[in-house]
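sanity check this record:
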Amino acid sequence: DKNNVSHASRMDGTATPECLKDGTGPESKYALSWANYFHSFLNAYKSHGIDIWAVTVQNAPVNVDAQWEGCAFSPSSEEEFIMHHLGPILRESYPDVNILVYDANREHAVEWMNYLWRDRNLDEKEENLGSDGDGDRINALDFMDGVAMQWYSDAKPSHMLDGALGTPNMHRVAEMAYFYQKRKEENMKKEEKEREKGLEEQETTKSYNLRHSSIDSTTTGIMDDNDSIMERMPILLDTEATHCSSTGYAIGDIDVSWYRAERNGHAILAQLAAGSNGWIEYNMVLDPIGGPNHVENFCDAPIVAVPHRAQSVVEFQLMPDFEHYQLKEGEVIMGEYETKFTLGSKMGYPPSYIDAGIVVQPMFYYTGHFSRYVRPGSTPLMALVGESPGGAMSRTFRPVGKTSPGGGNNNNAREGIEVTVWPCEGSTRQHWTMANEQLQTYRLNGYGEQLCVTLRDSVDVSLGGILLTDCKADDAASFTVVTEPKTDSDEADVVKFMTTKRRANECLGIEPLANGGGAYGPRGGAQAVLLPCDHESAIWHYSSKTGEVVSQYFSWDGPETNSGVCLTTGWPFLQAGAFDTSGTTSAESDVVVVVLNESSDDANFVLATPTSGQRQPPSSLLKSSIPAHSIQTILL
């Protein structure tokens, strides 16, 4: 250990309200010891020839009630720990290792980054700046290289919302990162000019090999170049995603395995479009029950190890020696009761891999559409599944002459899902019924029973939009439908949905996505909110025949284009993302387009690119179709 480092004799009960004994201030010997542990961790891996690219300050700093080891940080204590301890230590010995902050669910990311990225120039109090032993000033921001976020939901106990919530918050954090970087460079440019002119003496700052300590010739003069600033923005990384509990192999239900694969595909598409720089799968390989795990927090992985089923194995136990958990009476691993051929036909697990001692689940292939083709260094391109050219009379999942929605069972119709708007596709995810003063929709459970959900009567504070709730819940919203004047071209009723439970003159409306909607644009997932009834987005077109609630808030002039958006439970069945891979290593094409269909119906689509003329129709590149419950990658 380094000099002046002390250790607590025990760690019991130190998780709350703050993890480290004596806090995280400059005099905390325990915080110093913890920071040096990071240093020792990096040393240990380096001794084996493994270089670590980045560390997060703490896994789930706000989730200290979990059964696994936890260490609580608030935004202010994490900032102090970085500023006084972790930052200086790592920058001195490991200047190329990135330090990522937060690393928890997306619900609270905006709150944390509002604090950590606040403008220090507005407040020069001592708590905003630290000092080292030489009296030099240290800014915590000098050590923060990016933000880590996880895909889980705060909703308990179900895991059905994991990967489904918080993408609008990723848009918000991406926009915050852009303006933080822009402000940072403008401030540095101003300081450099002041130094050059000698207008005033500047306090010196100890270097610690800071990577953003000054503006060089490559950045001076391009402060208004948006693309350039975006290239230097803090790292935004999805650091953890997994499905709990148990594995698809143990559950033995193809619907579960395929649902988990589709959720991976959706979340990766949505997060990369919103501004994330990458995706980390929590586990690549686990044992048959989703372990080993010392607190029985069993989850799923793309690959399940079943070495006892390998052809070359004569005798091998079902559970590895390091898995302490033993199946209780009545607990079974369903996959163990199936032959490899039945698993192939029933679950989609290739028998040849089972002969090699592994089960390769659908998650592996869905994630592989990204990991194989969207190589490191790729950049998202503007891409969105639009509506059919036939307008309201012909949707992707509702053919001409039909009024019933297509797509199959709407498994997004569940409590806690965000209510958003997307281009209309004529599916059950965009089908609403006005009943009992509620906008209702439903899904079928395993017994074929309809489970009714509706909009909540308030905007979620952490997520920034309206969520779904049970139709009988106390927080269900009630609306009065206020009819507005129609034009000759209006096929549906023009209405406003005015709340009756909250303050007067409040209606259902739309909150545009931050950062312009990222690669999806403004129409790709803006949130439903409550706002004054005179707001432009409070006007909707509602058809009781089709069940569509349509907004023209994002309308634009284009030939043969109906640019309306439909009220949606979460996101549509049919999704797509495009990526420029021309500058990456080992790329197989210049452009990659990933198409995902979560519905039970096949879908036809046309891949098109915009033309230079504003009123010219898009240029068609490809006409194709995608089967139900599948994912496709198109290389251009």
About this structure: The first helix runs from residue 29 to 47.
